[in-house]
């Protein structure tokens, strides 16, 4: 099943859950159910964004978008993770209010509706699990994983209320605890998305090992101005200056460059590599010595 079809199926499941949980929350006076309905409503928006981003990422590169639309998935992941944080803050505020102003909770209705939410959210999370390394899918899967956990907590709270006829405070308390846990994970996703947008070095990439591997290639004596960044969760790019051995011809230099590109692609999973060949290194002890002066004027 394609990524797009997985997202569409998850969206259908989610919309059904929103309707059921919102209705149950109103009749049962349950903060926990209302929290899960709120999360599921955010899921619907998250799925829509993820679906659009996934389809955009498949579009070919253009003159205006020379790297294509890979970053669309990261923007969607950032938006979705931020939405989770915002919803979490709203649930925390509502939970605090319900702790201060408790309401009678219908335990039976809470358990029934939450059980349906648990099954639906768990199924949707498993549906998206295959692509968990993709930040876009991780953000959406987090929505559903969090909602499944929330539903489980609501079931426990409803069962306690049903069995004892009291302890209504457990309902908003469970909602608060689960929301805080999911909010913390969402914040980690926000940071990971921002790292990619800021073109940070991938966290699992050993830059020293990368430089060593390039320098060890036949025909290369040194490497500098090495930069590696991510276009998306699974597409990496690299640029570097290579100092070549001797004074090779253009054809010989090209052979060395292809050898380096193949090496970094296989070992470090770099999809796009740009190399500048040099017979002599740039000036030493100068920051960004090989960089073009940003202040220049075209000669008329």
What is this structure, in a nutshell?
The chain is mainly alpha-helical. The protein has helices at 3-28, 31-57, 71-100, 107-127, 135-164, 170-197, 207-215, 250-268, and strands at residues 220-230, 236-244, 272-278. The chain is built from 8 helices and 3 strands, in the order H-H-H-H-H-H-H-E-E-H-E.
User: What is the 3D shape?
Assistant: elongated
Strand order of the largest sheet: 1-2-3
CATH class of the largest domain: Mainly Alpha
Tell me about the largest β-sheet: 3 strands, mixed
Count of helical regions = 8
The chain-level mean pLDDT equals: 77
Distance between the termini: 57 Å
Look up the CATH topology of the largest domain: Alpha-lytic protease prodomain-like
Beta-strand level of the residues, as a percent range? 5-15%
Rg is: 26 Å
Specify the CATH architecture of the largest domain: Up-down Bundle
Low-confidence stretches: 294-300
* Corresponding CATH superfamily of the largest domain: Cation efflux protein transmembrane domain
Report on this structure.
The chain folds into 2 domains: 3-197, Cation efflux protein transmembrane domain (Alpha-lytic protease prodomain-like, Up-down Bundle); 207-278, Alpha-Beta Plaits. Helix content is 63%, strand content 9%. It has helices at residues 3-28, 31-57, 71-100, 107-127, 135-164, 170-197, 207-215, 250-268, and strands spanning 220-230, 236-244, 272-278. The chain has a 3-stranded mixed beta sheet, with helices on one face. Helix 3 packs parallel to helix 5.
